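Reproducibility note. Readers wishing to regenerate the assembly model reported in the main text can use the exact inputs given here. Chain order matters: entities are listed in the order in which they were concatenated for prediction.
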Amino acid sequence: MSNKKQTSLIFAVAFVLIALVIVLYPSHRSQDICDINREGGCTIKGITFSIDPRPVTAMRENVFRARLEDPSMVPEGTDLALHLTMPGMEMGINRMRLKKIGPGRYSGKGVIPRCPSGQKLWRAAILDISARELASFHFEVE
Amino acid sequence: MTTGLSELALSALAGLLGGLGHCSGMCGPVVAAFNMRKEEGAGAPLSSTLLYNAGRVATYTLLGALVGGLGSFVTVVAPMEGAQYALMSATGALMVFMGLSIAGALGRAAGFIEKHNTMVIGAARTLLSSRSPLKFLALGLVLGFLPCGLSYTMLIGAAGAGGILPGALRMLSFGLGTVPAMFLIGMLAGGASNLMRGRLYRAGGAVVALMGIVYIYRGLAFYAGL
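Running the prediction on these inputs yields the following structure tokens for the assembly.
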């Protein structure tokens, strides 16, 4: 086999391998992805989670809100924490505090970074003061 | 928010764990590409890898100082995001150039390069033909600006650190935490390229070139809104 054919064959094999990795890369899509741009946000386990302004986009300051149907779910006078992570991609934990702004209502400001890989699926976990996870939400951000 | 030892340790840990899980996949191909080139006067892989990482960590520290001083991630990073993705495509072009060189296919591409002697290709030729090991420091300084989700998350934290020094220290800790993984990739790629012969070595070049195409695509996808 000539050098030219060998090089072409090597490129073809490498291209197929990389294409397979890209296509088969686990997307970690779950069936319960919530539409974060929907009016009123998403509700899971008695907690409504919303982000403003809508449509929610990455790389700008957003306001994150949580509303508890039952304010007694968390100790009186305490704040909540929000942990943003990206399923399937190690992006670190983007932590922010959701301060209590009223009975069962919490709010905090933060930024959703953009992933250069093109992945858009995020997981927001809402935790109480003892780091107990109350609910988590999966959503996509442009 | 203050930056105590625990915050710095957490930042370093995030860099260490993220370096193995995230950086090795996202930036690893770049590091591997630079260490695969068999060229004279480029410096041993150890010094070149050290210099590359020193430059990269210096850029992270600078960005940490900026976001910490201004107390805002968005003010600093959002305006330069477009330039970061342009850098990503340019890096991809450089990787294609290097990959073709490693694969021994650059001769066939010479006609195309001479015909399309763009700024990027010209810069790549100048960079790769340089014999100074300091080019790896310069590369690290520039490529530290590549868009990176993990770095963004750490910069968001550094923005809330409470000042220039705390912000810089957090990103310095994070950057140092990523060094072992990047160092390992560089040393492995350098060592492997010395052991590899013939087709296997050229195949490595082909993979570098194809990863370069992926970088170009990701950079352009930002502008296309994909």
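We highlight two features of this model. The mean pLDDT of chain B is 82. The CA atoms of residues 121 and 210 of chain B lie 17 Å apart.
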